Structure formats: C-alpha cells, structure tokens
Amino acid sequence: MLSNKPVEEKPKSPLTNTDSWIRSAIPHLPLGVAVLCLLLNIIIPGSGTMLSGVAILCCGRPRVNSKDDHVIVTICVNVWVGFAQLFTITFLLVGWFWSLAWGIRMIILAGK
C-alpha cells in the first residue's frame, strides 16, 4: 500500500555533487579568488582553472567524491583540465569557451 506521507527533500548544499565527476573537481572558493580565476581564464585560458586547483591548499574546499585524498585529486584534475583548456584554444576557441564556463561556474559556487 502506498502511504500519503509527504516526501521530505533535504536542502542542497553547494558541496553536494549533481555534476559529472570532472565538473565536481571545480572547487568551492571564496568569491574574490573565484573572480580572479575567471579573469585569468579570460586572459589566458586554463590559467585560472589551474590556480583554482592550487588554491585548494590555502582557501578552497574540494567537492570531489573520491576514495582517494580529495585535495590531491582536485589539484590534479584542475591542472590537467587547465592544460587541456590551454591546448584546445586552437580548435575554434573551444578551450577559451570551456575555461570561461569553468570560471563562471566557480563564481556560481562561490556565491552559494
């Protein structure tokens, strides 16, 4: 028999993951650092993404769900993605748009 109890929804935390595994590597940063990363991604695609990974060491929080060390995984994925963004800029500016999207996502996560 079905019950008529209302389903309770848990409040969403900015650190919960509904993103893909690679997008979950975007760390939760303070707003100022997120804006700096976006500006760097606009100027040199991928540089802000790499900085966001390293910023985990001093002021950010990882969002990766991994059995391994969350900090190391976040740093490695962000550095790898940053290099991929930089090297794919030659393909119709794909890397620039990709790094721009990641920078905007960093600001959205910082605002939550």
From TrEMBL:
Keywords, sorted A to Z: Membrane, Transmembrane, Transmembrane helix
TM stretches of this protein: 31-59, 71-98
Topology with respect to the bilayer: Multi-pass membrane protein
Localization terms from the record: Membrane
Keyword Transmembrane helix recorded: yes
Organism phylogeny: Eukaryota, Metazoa, Spiralia, Lophotrochozoa, Mollusca
GO annotation, cellular component aspect: membrane; sensory dendrite
InterPro entries reported in the protein's UniProt record: SPEC3/Stum (IPR026673)
Organism: Lottia gigantea
PANTHER family: PROTEIN STUM
Source domain of life: Eukaryota
GO terms, biological process: proprioception; sensory perception of mechanical stimulus; taxis
Protein name as it appears in the record: Protein SPEC3
